[in-house]
Specification:
Number of domains: 1
Strand content: 15-25%
Strand order of the largest sheet: 2-1-3-4-8-7
Distance between the termini: 53 Å
Shape: globular
Largest sheet: 6 strands, parallel
Order of helices and strands: HHEHEHEHHEEEHHEHEH
């Protein structure tokens, strides 16, 4: 077994909502793109920020959207929060991220091996024991890491917020449901985010 696969299998299963709260507590003016489903709902529950963008019905697009924001605003750190199932729909985006090399982009992937919001079906990656960190590293994202536990997740987040990227941080997470859901108002969400990052007055 490869060192990367060892890291995957040795990583503790953590709570997605708790990790989201820990990450949000560290933020100032960073933009955050929340992928669909529970990733999004946990970001909403962790505290409303004008710099948060809550995706609705756009599976697989958190990283591409975050990449676009990072390119448009190179002085602002941009974080993509994405689920493993969604990332599998757009794996090619990792090669694009590596090719563009945005120093201000951080990708955080919550991996529970299932499509949780649609009924808990296993992802192909889980069935094939695919290592998303190894894929990110092989795509050219050198700073790609599994978080072994909550302490390491916090340490990786601190490093990623203060050191040039791009960064890819993955955490094995449980399948606990979110405690709330994001409001369903895409126009309001878009406009609030654009104002939050200063792209609209």
């Amino acid at each position: 077994m490869s060192p990367a696969m060892d890291a995957l299998h040795n990583a503790q299963v953590m709570n997605r909502a708790a990790l989201t709260r820990r990450l949000v507590a560290k933020l100032t003016d960073q933009a955050v793109i929340g992928g669909i489903g529970n990733t999004n709902f946990d970001l909403w529950a962790a505290g409303r920020r004008p710099e948060n963008f809550y995706m609705l019905g756009s599976m697989g697009l958190a990283v591409p959207i975050a990449l676009g924001v990072a390119i448009a605003q190179p002085k602002r750190t941009v974080i993509a929060l994405e689920g493993d199932g969604s990332l599998l729909m757009q794996l090619g985006c990792l090669s694009t991220v590596a090719a563009r090399g945005p120093r201000n982009l951080v990708i955080v992937v919550w991996d529970n091996g299932i499509y949780q919001i649609t009924g808990g079906q296993r992802t192909p990656a889980a069935a094939a024991r695919t290592d998303l960190v190894a894929i990110a590293r092989a795509s050219g994202i050198a700073e790609s890491h599994w978080a072994a536990d909550e302490a390491e997740f916090e340490a990786l987040a601190e490093r990623a917020l203060g050191a040039p990227g791009p960064w890819f941080i993955a955490a094995r997470i449980d399948d606990k449901p979110a405690v709330t859901q994001t409001e369903r108002d895409p126009v309001r969400i878009r406009d609030a985010f654009m104002r939050g990052i200063g792209s609209r007055g």
